[in-house]
Amino acid sequence: MPPTALILGISGQDGAYLAELLLAKGYVVHGTSRDHEASSFRNLTMLGVRDRVTLHSASLNDFRSVIRVFDRVKPDEIYNLAGQTSVGLSFDMPVETFESISLATLNILESIRFLKRPVRLFNAASSECFGNTPEPAGEETPFRPRSPYAAAKAAAFWTVANYREAYGMYACSGILFNHESPLRLGRFVTRKIVATAVRIAEGGGDHLTMGDLSIARDWGWAPEYAEAMHLMLRQDEPRDLVIATGHSIRLEDFVDLAFRELGLSWREHVTVDPHLFRPSEIQVSVGDPRLAETTLGWRARTLVEGVVAKLIESERRTPR
């Protein structure tokens, strides 16, 4: 029998790319959404896999809902990619953020423990847990979260570690640094930059409003990060790993790359609005992926210049 994977949060960027990857490897793929009949699953449709996955309605904040879908699917592997994903939005919605990330993760772990089936769990942690990282952050770097989102992700990370140690579960967290793709929603800054720059280049506008351009991030390519998630569940023993490129650039330089790729000068089209600054911001975020390379044989192939070029290529093909 082919292995069965259950992707919690299958409608998002990472869930869609992971579904595509696992289907190509011969998996039977299931996924959850709060209301699978009302959801559009746009990303799965864009990748051409919408009709090849089985979808279920489930609220991860509700223990009974979680255990019901686990018992129905009987997965060999579970990928927890669900929850509120916006750092900025978490300042406006801290309670929903905590419930959708930390409480949901606890419900997942308790459901696995209750059903007593041999399941492997991948949990998507976040580089935001580290806070500022003037030196590349590795697996032993302490967490210093600076947003409700980061605090919720840190709580989920330690809950996974606790259940692994207390109950012998195969459960691990990938500490994922920023990774982008054309499937990103427009509220994410990289998509906002690229979409606006392409529109300006095509004569459809002349202005981009940004927040703090001095921040630096470690940006990778989302499909490659889906590969790392799968590889983490193929190891003999579960291990938490940093997944990153190991390189970071300032947001200003990301903007410059995007505009120069289109033959434009960003200084002629970009203004900074202090109202877009977050209450608490990470100035520098960069990861140390060396352990992932030695453990998984995984290495980021697309650095930020390639990420920008691919995003622009995709945006130019998008119908207006």
State mean pLDDT (0 to 100 scale). 94
Within CATH, the superfamily of the largest domain carries the name NAD(P)-binding Rossmann-like Domain
Amino-to-carboxy terminus distance: 44 Å
Inertia-based shape: globular
Q: How many domains in all? A: 2
Q: Which sequence of SSEs, written as H and E, runs from N to C?
A: EHEHEHEHHEHEEHEEEHEEHEHH
What is the CATH topology assignment of the largest domain? Rossmann fold
Q: What's the total helix number?
A: 11
Q: Hey, roughly how much beta strand do the residues contain?
A: 15-25%
Quantity of strands, as a count: 13
The side-by-side strand order for the widest beta sheet comes to 3-2-1-4-5-6-11
Helix coverage percent of residues?
A: 40-55%
- Radius of gyration from CA coordinates: 19 Å
Mind telling me the CATH class of the largest domain? Alpha Beta
Which ranges are low-confidence, i.e. pLDDT below 50, for 5 or more consecutive residues?
none
Tell me the major beta sheet: 7 strands, parallel
**CATH architectural category of the largest domain:** 3-Layer(aba) Sandwich
Description:
By secondary structure, the chain is an alpha/beta fold. It has two domains: 4-179 and 221-243, Rossmann fold, CATH 3.40.50; 182-217 and 248-285 and 302-317, UDP-galactose 4-epimerase, domain 1, CATH 3.90.25.10. It is built from eleven helices and 13 strands. It has helices spanning 13-24, 42-46, 63-73, 87-92, 94-115, 148-167, 189-201, 222-232, 251-261, 290-296, 304-317, and strands spanning 4-8, 28-33, 54-57, 77-80, 120-126, 170-176, 179-180, 208-210, 216-217, 220-221, 241-243, 249-250, 270-272. The strands form four sheets. A seven-stranded parallel β-sheet has the order 3-2-1-4-5-6-11, with helices on both faces. A two-stranded parallel sheet has the order 7-10. Strands 8-13 form a two-stranded parallel ribbon. Strand 1 (4-8), helix 1 and strand 2 (28-33) form a beta-alpha-beta unit. Helix 1 (13-24) packs across helix 8, helix 7 runs parallel beside helix 9 (251-261) and helix 7 (189-201) packs across helix 11. It is globular and about 60 Å long.
